[in-house]
Amino acid sequence: MTNRLKRCVLASLILLPTVATQLARADISDNLPDIGTTAGNTLSVNQELAMGDFYVRQLRASAPLINDPLLNDYINQLGQRLVAHAWSVKTPFHFFLVSNDELNAFAFFGGNVVLHSALFRYTENESQLASVLAHEISHVTQRHLARAMEEQQRNAPLTWVGALGSILLAMASPQVGMAALSGTLAGAQQGVISFTQQNEQEADRIGIQVLQRAGFDPQAMPNFLQKLSDQSRFASKPPEMLLTHPLPDSRLADARNRANQMKPVVVQSSQDFYMAKVRVLGMYATGKNQLDDDLLQTLSKGNTREQTAAQYGKAVQFLQAKSYDNARRIIAPLLAAQSNNVWYLDLMTDIDIGLKQPQRAVALLEKVKTTSPVVQLNLANAYVEAKQPASAIKILYHYTWTYKDDPNGWDLLAQAASAQGQTDEEEAARAESLALNGQLDQAIRSLSSASAAVPLGSLKQARYDARIDQLRDLQQRFRQYQKR
């Protein structure tokens, strides 16, 4: 498969066919003729949700997703703020962050949006980051993938759907995904894939209105697109985002024209944006996208929020270098001034654990007056490190009930149960983590071990056996999405 064809495959399956829609009235009037269909004849919303669930599990298993509670909380809060101002929302939305130095983002079935960590290097402010999210949200609300399936119904759509898992993996982790993609498409008709740019412009038109209604600067969208265009012009290789999100001059001009018709607004980036920026670059980026002294120096010369982020970023650098005492000297006064700040609490917990003083982390977190899930996880982790597994289990039972889709909770619960000698609970927790990663066979085996470890006919055995039945049903539903 040629590089050119690979790019077209990636772009076309995520950003597929051209369908115009009628935009609702925002601050500007923009009515487009409705020449499309609802896509409901081929794929229902419930089917989209099921497919989204399947592919998220595949991504967890194979792509370098960042399971950082602080960062996941930030991007989901930002994303949900935008979703609250979007129209035609038919599914819940979930936002994920993947460690990838290629500048890109993509969306797929079931309201799932994936951001590459490199976006935090290249977005200058929160409105620019929000513009990328608004664009991807609009791909979902306009059901571009479902409409693609409807157009290709007569050309083996199940083969096309079977390839999607490899496509998504290639977007998130190119080295792994391309190998899978080549094998998946080896026997498929290339005519199934059609390439167009018009749905990109549709996502821009709708996304910029979502951006404005959510209180962000609409100029951020054309400004970021211009930045991409400039980077492409002076680089030997264009950004990955331009391969999967084509940027003809007409698209940039249209976005600029629409932004110019909207009411000008001055928007300050939140403190969380700057904290997330330095955390991503300091902990999860590599190569040119790492947190460097030049960026910290630039932030230190900015406004109060940027200066605070520069201090936090320096502490992150010390933590990553295992220079825990230096990191603590920076964070301690910041935490003293803001005792409930989750960014500081999380870092201080890691520092104390790095210093082999988990009990100090426990004492700090037990006094915190917040119900933040980030603090709950940190306290549970501190209890495990301080050899107080029973206290950790008490927190984690509640956490995993509330946040069933967070692998962090299940992994910690497995550790705590193991330390407590609760073999069945350890196996059951590991099963949930395995299931979230799409490893359903292994999850069922772990639950079978848990069931065998408890008294015959007990309530625990009934619970484990019922969960085995649920996972077997899930296996049956997922078989239709396996590669063909």
Descriptive key words:
three-stranded mixed sheet; globular; about 475 residues; mainly alpha; single chain; disordered N terminus
Q: Would you kindly provide a written description of the structure presented here, covering whatever features stand out?
A:
By secondary structure, the chain is mainly alpha-helical. 64% of the residues lie in helices and 3% in strands. The protein has 24 helices and three strands. The protein has helices spanning 3-14, 45-62, 69-83, 119-122, 126-141, 144-151, 157-172, 174-184, 198-213, 220-233, 240-244, 249-260, 271-283, 293-300, 304-320, 324-337, 342-354, 358-366, 373-385, 389-402, 407-420, 423-436, 440-452, 459-478, and strands spanning 94-98, 105-108, 112-116. It has a three-stranded mixed beta sheet, sandwiched between helices. A hairpin with a 3-residue loop joins strand 2 and strand 3. Helix 20 packs antiparallel against helix 21 and helix 22 (423-436) packs antiparallel against helix 23 (440-452). The chain is globular. Mean pLDDT is 83; it is low at 1-37 and 177-195.
